[in-house]
Structures are given as C-alpha cells and as structure tokens.
Amino acid sequence: DFEKKMTGYVGRSEEILRTLPFGHFDFIYADASHESADVLSDAMLSWPLLRPGGILAFDDYEWRLRSEPNRCPKLAIDSFLAVMRGHYEELHRGYQLWIRKTG
User: Fold this and answer.
1) Which one of 9, 43, 63, 102 is most buried, by most CB atoms within 10 A?
2) How does residue 32 score in pLDDT terms, banded at 50, 70 and 90?
3) Would you say 42 and 73 are in contact if contact means Cβ atoms under 8 Å apart?
4) What is the 8-class DSSP label of residue 50?
5) Looking at the whole model, is its pTM more than 0.85?
6) Strand order in the sheet with 88-93
7) Beta-sheet strands, E only, within the chain
C-alpha cells in the first residue's frame, strides 16, 4: 500500500526542505507559491533530496493568471531545466511538468 510509504509536509517549503536528508526521496511534488523566485528556490532545494531515478513533479507549469513572467512558475521551471540539462529525463509536459533524475 503506497499510502503508508508517503509523507506529506505542511509549512514553508524553504524551511522544511532544508531539514530533509539528501538522496532520500523517490518522488517530490512541488506545489507551493506561483512566484518564479519561490518556485526556483523549491526546485533547487528539492533536487539534492531525490535519489537517482527519483521524480520531481511541478504543478502549475502552464499557470498564467498574471501577465508578468516573473510572477508565474513557468519561468522558474524553464530556468531550472536549463541549468540541470543532461541530469534529467522529461516524463511529462502539460499543466504539470514531471522529470526523472538521471544522475
């Protein structure tokens, strides 16, 4: 039963992510702030927490309620992907974006 293997955390992601062990997680679902700076910070803090083969899923990739690019997740996610190119495999791109850590 997978539910027994899942752990959810509630709180400010920049505080919680810093307390978690590196290379420990198989799946991280990033769904917090829509501000680009916050999303980029969450991505960078989440990445070392994943085991090789782990999946990082971003919510709201196509969310565009605000017109300024720096107020939407897409700019941050695209920036993170550019920096991490060669270290992930893209699994899905739509309203959510899912990647698998390859190394």
Assistant:
1) 43
2) confident
3) no
4) E
5) yes
6) 25-30, 50-58, 97-101, 88-93
7) 25-30, 50-58, 88-93, 97-101
